[in-house]
Every structure is written in C-alpha cells, then in structure tokens.
Amino acid sequence: MKKPCECSSIDEVRTEIDSLDAQIMELFGRRFQFVKEVVKYKAADKDSIVAANRRSKVLSRIRVLAEENGLNPDEFENVYKQLIEHFISEELKLIQ
Length: 96
Known about the structure:
Elements: H1 10-38, H2 46-50, H3 52-68, H4 73-95
Helix pairs in contact: 3-4
C-alpha cells in the first residue's frame, strides 16, 4: 500500500482507492459475521435486537474515530446509522 503522496498518476491513485475499498468491504463482511453471532446472546425480541444503548455508544465512538481521522463526524455517523439499520434488519430476520 502506497501513501497518497507516493502515487505518480491518477491510475495509481485509483488503484490504491480500489484496494482500500476492497479492504473496507471485507471488514464490513467480517463485522456482519459478528453481528450474526451476537444474535445468539440476545433475547429474541425487537428491543434486544435494536439495543438502543449499544447503538448510541457505537455512534458516539464512530464520531470520535471520524474526527481522529480527519473525517466529517456527521457524515460518518449517518453512514453508520444506515449500516446499523441494515444489520438490525438482518438480525431480525435471523430471529424469525
């Protein structure tokens, strides 16, 4: 993996971005495997699956991580809200 300043063409930059996107998607896939696993430890009801307190903690942590990485915390909180909603719907399917 190159640093951005080490790239000498737009193609190199795009190759590195594509590589990062693949890694990000792999990590989201791994995260989803843990989401499916956590269902085993939750009660089989909607409140347990939604886990509002946990959701709030995750979103707060994402805001901090976004700021630490020079990213807009509002935008990345929104991204994670969508991600969490998707995973909640998947968890709800698993308990049915």
